[in-house]
Amino acid sequence: MSTNERTVHATPEQVWEVLSDGWLYPLWVVGASRMRDVDDTWPEVGARLHHSVGAWPALIDDDTEVEECRPLRMLRLRARAWPTGEADVTLHLEPVGAETRIVMEENAVSGPAMLIPKPLQDPLLAWRNVESLRRLAYLCERRAAR
Fold first, then answer.
1. 3-class secondary-structure state, position 11
2. Which of 73, 92, 97, 144 could potentially form a cystine with 10 if both were Cys, beta carbons 3.0 to 4.6 Å apart?
3. Which residue, among 11, 32, 10, 33, has the nearest Cα to 89 in the 3D structure?
4. What confidence tens digit (pLDDT) does each residue in 16-40 have?
């Protein structure tokens, strides 16, 4: 499992506001290139984001589903990005004064990505998730500055 963390200059409420807006997903998730639709119940359990991954013209339509949701505290997703496979992604939010510590855990659970040995898989996920958390921080901090 790859685990990354970042403290952002925003409250858990401001971070949750960004996570709760499914249309923002491709702005912070590395690899997601566009949104096609967001279920009206996002981010409730069972709700899905309908996104595309890749770069044009080689876009693949896929989705991400909420598996567990504790508002302002935790969001667990099943992210699909075929042909690479599926991953469980969990975002934990922890208040730190007026800031928020975000811990992102990701684990490949199916598909060809499972064939990559863990010692190689985890650094690749870590690299991607450092950038995803950086992008998420920019979105949250920009909103906090308003």
1. coil
2. 144
3. 32
4. 999 999 999 999 999 889 999 999 9
Please give the angle made by the CA atoms of 59, 87 and 131, to the nearest 5 degrees: 70
At 67, is the secondary structure helix, strand, or coil?
Answer: strand
Tell me the two tokens of residue 106. Answer: 């990701």
Looking at this protein, which amino acid is placed at residue 72? L
3-class state of residue 40 by DSSP? coil
Cβ contacts of 5 within 8 Å, gap of 6 or more: 101, 102, 103, 104, 133
- Is 47:39 a contact under the CB 8 Å cutoff? yes
Class of the CATH domain delimited by 2-144: alpha beta
Where along the chain do its domains lie? 2-144
Residue 22 in tokens: 């499914």
Q: Is the CA virtual torsion 107, 113, 114, 119 positive or negative?
A: negative
pTM here is 0.92
Q: Would you list the DSSP string of 81-124?
A: ETTTEEEEEEEEEEEETTEEEEEEEEEEEESGGGGS-HHHHHHH
